[in-house]
């Protein structure tokens, strides 16, 4: 049975009882408007942990764009019913005041890995993510936390903060779930028009082709330029970045012997889509 819990006090009571009984606890942090990508994380947690908590919290501190925050889809009822099919034990859906009560004054800031790409395009975003993820780990006392590779840089930020702050959590990165045309599932996809949705898969196919070309010996720069041209030609309004980076540090990397990642962000129908793949 899936139970919806809104307060930290009630959550703690449940978790303490589980832990006292020797059960392992997994947490899947989300902002709701759930899709198969989220559910795959929850199923993995279900398979690996005795108890599973999914958190649903649209975290105002990580939105640098007030319009994006206002338009973020909120579908708690439908989300809870999807999660009961996994099933997860608890849906933790706190209010903004519960998470950030009067007088809240702390920020967790991860230097380095949070600075380029998403960090540069969305100032303050990763401070908001690092702060709320640290709090969610503290609130849930989870042994394991599940995060999607779709938000690759976020996953690296969380890994860094857990290491740096000695948090007793094992971070598990889970593969990106895609639509049939390759589009990475994302809650923001519902804001695409039918015309936009029809071309959205080009972001993935363009970076996949670039990665293949680079592995076949094409120069990084040429392959990336061609990918950006394909995305624009398909009808995207703007390519914010397509970059080849060290997979762990997110710093520029032209060393094919190291694990590298191609990361992209582009605008379609006024919606900002991101994706990434290994190279
Ligand atoms: N397609 C996906 N495959 C695997 N994991 C995913 C996918 N989409 C999101 N996740 C993961 O689910 C967790 C919660 O993400 P979030 O609630 O922001 O959903 P989202 O679909 O990424 O929404 P957004 O529109 O904000 O990008 C994150 O760890 C994220 O990486
Ligand atoms: C990890 C997270 C739930 C923190 O708010 C959010 O950034 C997300 O949904 O990826
Ligand atoms: N999925 C990452 C959270 C965000 O876009 O704000």
UniProtKB/TrEMBL annotation:
GO terms for molecular function: ATP binding; pantoate-beta-alanine ligase activity. One of its GO terms (biological process) is pantothenate biosynthetic process. Coiled coil: none annotated. (R)-pantoate binds at residues 62, 154. InterPro entries: Cyt_trans-like, Pantoate_ligase, Pantoate_ligase_C, Rossmann-like_a/b/a_fold. The active site is at residue 38. The reaction proceeds by a bi uni uni bi ping pong mechanism. Catalyzes the condensation of pantoate with beta-alanine in an ATP-dependent reaction via a pantoyl-adenylate intermediate. This is Pantothenate synthetase. It comes from Fuscibacter oryzae.
């Amino acid at each position: 049975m899936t139970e919806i819990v809104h307060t930290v006090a009630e959550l703690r009571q449940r978790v303490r009882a589980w832990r006292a009984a020797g059960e392992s606890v997994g947490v899947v942090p989300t902002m709701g408007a759930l899709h198969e990508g989220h559910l795959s994380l929850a199923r993995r947690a279900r398979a690996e942990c005795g108890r599973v908590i999914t958190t649903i919290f649209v975290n105002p501190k990580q939105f640098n764009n007030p319009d994006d925050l206002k338009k973020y889809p909120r579908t708690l009822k439908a989300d809870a019913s999807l999660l009961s099919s996994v099933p997860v034990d608890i849906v933790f859906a706190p209010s903004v005041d519960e998470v950030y009560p009067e007088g809240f004054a702390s920020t967790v800031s991860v230097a380095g890995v949070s600075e380029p790409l998403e960090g540069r395009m969305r100032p303050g975003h990763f401070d908001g993510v690092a702060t709320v993820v640290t709090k969610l780990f503290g609130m849930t006392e989870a042994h394991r936390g599940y995060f999607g590779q779709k938000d690759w840089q976020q996953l690296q930020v969380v890994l860094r903060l857990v290491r740096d702050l000695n948090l007793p959590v094992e971070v598990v990165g889970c593969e990106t779930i895609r639509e049939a045309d390759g589009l990475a599932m994302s809650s923001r996809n519902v804001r695409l028009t039918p015309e936009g949705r029809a071309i959205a898969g080009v972001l993935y196919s363009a970076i996949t082709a670039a990665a293949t070309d680079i592995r076949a010996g094409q120069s990084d720069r040429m392959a990336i330029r061609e990918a950006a041209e394909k995305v624009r030609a398909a009808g995207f309004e703007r390519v914010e970045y397509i970059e080849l980076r060290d997979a762990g540090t997110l710093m520029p990397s032209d060393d094919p012997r190291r694990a590298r990642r191609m990361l992209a962000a582009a605008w379609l129908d006024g919606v900002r889509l991101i994706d990434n793949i290994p190279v």
